[in-house]
């Protein structure tokens, strides 16, 4: 066993398969992709990477498998999937995921093509593991895929604790030790054992608190929207999408500075756009909330024309309507498996909180904020009080 010192889990022991996988180019690339992308523009110490997060997910998966009594080649495939679950991410992780999905039709957890004929795929085969089976587990396939990608997955358990640790906020603290010990399989479903409604609620609450203070901080959202727009222009300018997907964070930042300097240099120097509009869900027409990519671009052009500025300077940021995936976690209550949303009154309150925190943003250089705000109110049919001050 190879031991790795970790800031969250202390020592992580790597089995021979994991030790070899860590040395592959595909996994080493994760050293250069930050876990929290643009959040580090708000929390300076949030410089941790998907490399260390992936080691943490492997560690928790190994512990969970031990408590579940799963051994042999089945456990070996799950451990490998836990370690490799993030190798499909593009630069800046989730921040470029929508662009990659639109251009390739793939999500980051669809890694079948990446494992086919690659060094990491060959490494799996050299240890008697099936790369396609590992890819299926990463994508949530089969009963054990729930452990890597599901409502009670070890991915979520690690990133909440790790992100809280590195940002310095206390809200992501969960008892991941109890969570992995209380996992059970019943009728092909991953559930928490009897007496763990509050354990499941803690995961839900931690995610909700981290959303409000870390993951959806308005500064990070502005920088992320600028980064996505700049990346789209970079690909439109001729950069092959498959080359874009395999970039690291620093590669993308350099390319943006050279080829999309008006946005790339702003991102690098944290000279960000400002909020012209910051509108709660209750004030936004349903058709605006549901704007697709092309409709969003068309609305931006209309706002820009009305405000007499170039369309590239207007960014509409309409996040998906709030949903709490963790509310579908299954817990055993009085011997019966129930969804957490049925067993907990807290779920309803958190859903209401998520909706209350949702905001539509329209971002623009500060010099054009007033003109764009007035134009956005007209084009998007918004009340005047949502104009950001």
Automatic annotation (TrEMBL):
Gene3D superfamilies: Hypothetical protein af1432
GO molecular function terms attached to this record: dGTPase activity
Superkingdom of origin: Archaea
GO terms, biological process: dGTP catabolic process
Domain HD intervals: 50-160
Record PANTHER family: DEOXYNUCLEOSIDE TRIPHOSPHATE TRIPHOSPHOHYDROLASE, DEOXYNUCLEOSIDE TRIPHOSPHATE TRIPHOSPHOHYDROLASE SAMHD1
Full protein name: HD domain-containing protein
């Amino acid at each position: 066993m190879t031991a790795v010192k970790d800031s969250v889990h202390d020592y992580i022991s790597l089995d021979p398969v994991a030790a070899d996988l860590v040395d592959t180019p595909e996994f080493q690339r994760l050293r250069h992709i930050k876990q929290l992308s643009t959040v580090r523009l708000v929390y300076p110490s949030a410089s941790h990477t998907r490399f260390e997060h992936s080691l943490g997910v492997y560690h928790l998966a190994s512990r969970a498998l031990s408590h579940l009594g799963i051994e042999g080649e089945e456990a070996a495939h799950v451990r490998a999937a836990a370690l490799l679950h993030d190798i499909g991410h593009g630069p800046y992780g989730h921040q470029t995921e929508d662009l990659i999905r639109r251009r390739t039709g793939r999500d980051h957890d669809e890694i079948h093509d990446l494992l086919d004929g690659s060094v990491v795929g060959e490494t799996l085969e050299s240890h008697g593991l099936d790369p396609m089976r590992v890819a299926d587990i990463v994508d949530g396939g089969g009963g054990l895929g729930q452990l890597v990608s599901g409502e009670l997955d070890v991915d979520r358990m690690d990133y909440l604790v790790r992100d809280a640790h590195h940002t310095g906020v206390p809200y992501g603290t969960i008892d991941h030790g109890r969570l992995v010990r209380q996992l059970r399989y019943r009728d092909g479903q991953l559930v928490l054992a009897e007496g763990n409604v509050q354990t499941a609620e803690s995961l839900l609450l931690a995610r909700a608190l981290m959303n409000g203070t870390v993951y959806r901080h308005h500064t990070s959202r502005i920088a992320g929207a600028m980064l996505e727009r700049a990346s789209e222009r970079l690909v439109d300018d001729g950069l092959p999408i498959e080359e874009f997907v395999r970039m690291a964070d620093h590669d993308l930042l350099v390319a943006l500075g050279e080829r999309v300097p008006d946005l790339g240099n702003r991102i690098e120097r944290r000279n960000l756009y400002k909020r012209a509009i910051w509108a709660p869900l209750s004030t936004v027409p349903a058709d605006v909330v549901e704007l697709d990519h092309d409709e969003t671009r068309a609305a931006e052009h209309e706002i820009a024309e009305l405000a007499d500025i170039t369309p590239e300077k207007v960014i509409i940021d309409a996040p998906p309507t709030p949903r709490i995936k963790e509310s579908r976690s299954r817990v055993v209550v009085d011997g019966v498996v129930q969804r957490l949303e049925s067993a907990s009154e807290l779920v309803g309150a958190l859903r209401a909180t998520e909706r209350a925190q949702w905001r539509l943003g329209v971002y623009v250089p500060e010099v054009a904020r007033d003109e764009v705000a007035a134009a956005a109110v007209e084009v998007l049919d918004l009340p005047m009080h949502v104009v950001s001050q």
